[in-house]
Amino acid sequence: MRVDGHVVGEVGGGVLLLVGFAQSDTPAPLEWMADKIAGLRIFPDDEGRMNRSLDEVGGGALIVSQFTLYGDTGKGRRPSFVKAAHPDLAVPLYERFVHLMEERLPGRVATGEFGAMMDVELVNDGPVTLVLERD
Length: 135
Hints:
The chain is about 25% helix and about 20% strand. The chain is α/β, with parallel strands linked by helices and about 140 residues long. It has one domain (about 1-110): D-tyrosyl-tRNA(Tyr) deacylase (D-tyrosyl-trna(Tyr) Deacylase, Chain: A).
């Protein structure tokens, strides 16, 4: 991941996490989410079945703040982002989530810069794209 042409975060194999927060979000589900992501069995075993977790494959997590996940395209042609959390709420939630992921994947978590224009490169090695939400 690059900001202004400089690499600010990268991982080898693992997951790219696009993380967004809504105005109604609280810190309560963050630990559950970090546990869920670190433990998801989405990587192939020796038979090619999705049966291994990030920890089992030594994978990393590239975490990107992405408020546009809460873009509402229901009306008009310009997305509305009124449901997305403002930075005063989103930044502490994002930083807490990153910290929780670092606890679960020591030395294997990288991030971009919150609110920056980032160039993110992804090699999608497999068919897995998931949306993880918890109310």
